[in-house]
Design a protein that fits this description.
Blueprint (H helix, E strand, L loop, with lengths): L12 H24 E6 L2 E6 L1 H33 L6 E2 H4 L2 H20 L4 H26 L8 H18 L3 H20 L7 H21 L1 H4 L27 H4 L7 H27 L1 H11 L1 H6 L4 H27 L9 H14 L4 H17 L7 H15 L12 E2 L8
Antiparallel strand pairs: 1-2, 3-4
Length: 433
């Protein structure tokens, strides 16, 4: 058997220019409300000022950067395929990923670690970054169900709510701490995932989407009406905040606090920065867990079910168990994110777990490129930061946000990172590293 090597798609100069022009056009559309237009106070009234030179410079940078990036990617692919003509092996996708994706991932991690240090006195920036990381974690959880297993889930916010309310109840009723409740809430959310997956195993496509949407609404309605358990519309307040190894983030007093233990002047930003690093650690663990699961037999079975369920059954794969495992693991990760959300806010109510949240999380997975871990990060940045940057436009910001999403999907229908390496690559000699 010989290895079949295909030439990279779209490697001619014309293709590179066309791709760079498309990226520049998207940058122009996104940059008009964020960079090209600015509201200024003039005599007590707001006036829209323009900054076209800055906008055009931004578009030119995007065009040039994309052109250089495509050229580098094409050359790396060509060199890699030349090496692979003689090196036949079996390798995991995470180990054969394009070098530029690896560098982007490490650069993003460096920026994430340094961000609270650079903006230590700017609570808004750190809070916004924390929100982005929550959606990144939720996106990676839903990516297991939608991106890897190919099961359309419109009720993912239900598991997010289960995790949050589990911690809220354990904290207020039994005095449990964050780390005590985290695994319990994840297990309960996973059981709800199995509860959803079991009766829907025979459904596909739109029918599965309708059932999962109904499941999400059932959970929300139960939270609204079961007042004795969930507090109803009033929600649950006074939820315990996580501490730093038992050191609370409080003003110095009789008990040891974070500030007094380390000899620091008390600041409310200490807790904000700690929560940021906490969700960053949880998100990185989630990414590591999902990446390793993809290389295991169960991860390969998810992708096989996504591609052709009938062929999988003919090969002896238990489709029922594979689907249930995807639902359970995705729900567990959503439950973990819900625990952090409840701990961060200190208060939860049903209004935080509406269908709109499910739609945003699903949009992150689809817009980033289904199955792409890095794509989820990029899509989370777009979907969280874009509305924030457009706040000056008040009621028009969501109109601009929706228009930008539509245009991105028209120009990039497969998502921001539509291309990704296969989980396993087969070579002639069948070796494995």
């Amino acid at each position: 058997m010989t290895a079949l090597v295909l030439a990279p798609h779209g490697t001619s100069p014309a293709d590179r220019l066309k791709d760079a022009a498309a990226v520049a056009f998207i940058a122009l559309l996104l940059g008009i409300p964020m960079i090209g237009l600015l509201t200024v106070d003039q005599g007590g009234a707001l006036r829209v000022a323009t900054r076209w030179p800055t906008l055009f410079a931004f578009v030119a940078i995007c065009f040039t950067g994309r052109l250089i990036l495509r050229l580098a990617i094409d050359r790396l692919r060509a060199a890699k395929q030349a090496r692979e003509r003689s090196d036949v092996e079996l390798a995991a996708a995470d180990r054969t990923a394009s070098p530029w994706l690896t560098w982007i991932g490490w650069a993003a991690l460096g920026v994430a670690l340094a961000l609270p240090m650079v903006f230590s006195e700017n609570r808004y920036v750190v809070d916004t970054a924390t929100t982005v990381l929550i959606y990144v974690m939720l996106g990676w959880g839903l990516n297991v169900v939608v991106g890897l297993a190919g099961l359309l889930d419109l009720g993912y916010v239900a598991f997010y709510a289960v995790g949050a309310y589990t911690y809220g109840l354990l904290s207020t009723q039994f005095g449990w701490g964050f780390w005590q409740a985290l695994p319990v809430a994840g297990a309960i959310a996973a059981s709800f995932g199995i509860l959803l997956g079991w009766p829907t195993l025979r459904l596909r496509g739109d029918y599965l989407a309708i059932v999962t949407l109904g499941f999400g609404e059932i959970i929300r309605i139960i939270l609204v009406n079961w007042t004795e358990l969930s507090g109803g519309p009033n929600g649950i307040a006074s939820i315990a905040r996580p501490s730093f190894f038992g050191l609370p983030f409080k003003p110095p007093g009789d008990e040891a606090t974070f500030a007094s233990f380390f000899g620091l002047e008390y600041s409310t930003n200490h807790r904000i920065v700690f929560l940021y690093y906490l969700i960053l650690a949880l998100a990185l663990l989630t990414n590591l867990f999902v990446s390793r699961m993809r290389t295991l037999p169960i991860g390969r079975a998810w992708e096989a079910i996504r591609e052709d369920e009938i062929a999988c059954k003919a090969m002896g794969i238990n489709a029922r168990n594979v689907k249930l495992s995807a639902f359970a693991i995705g729900a567990m990760l959503g439950g973990f994110a819900g625990v952090f959300f409840a701990a961060r806010q200190g208060f939860i109510s049903p209004e935080s777990f509406t269908f709109n949240e499910s739609a945003i999380i699903l949009a992150i997975v689809v817009l980033g490129g289904m199955g792409s871990q890095l794509g989820v990060v990029l899509a989370s940045l777009v979907l969280v930061l874009l509305p924030e940057l457009g706040r000056d436009f008040a009621e028009y910001r969501m109109l601009l946000f929706g228009a930008a999403m539509i245009l991105i999907m028209v120009w990039k229908p497969g998502g921001i990172l539509s291309h990704r390496e296969p989980t396993l690559r087969y070579r002639a000699n069948g070796g494995r590293r």
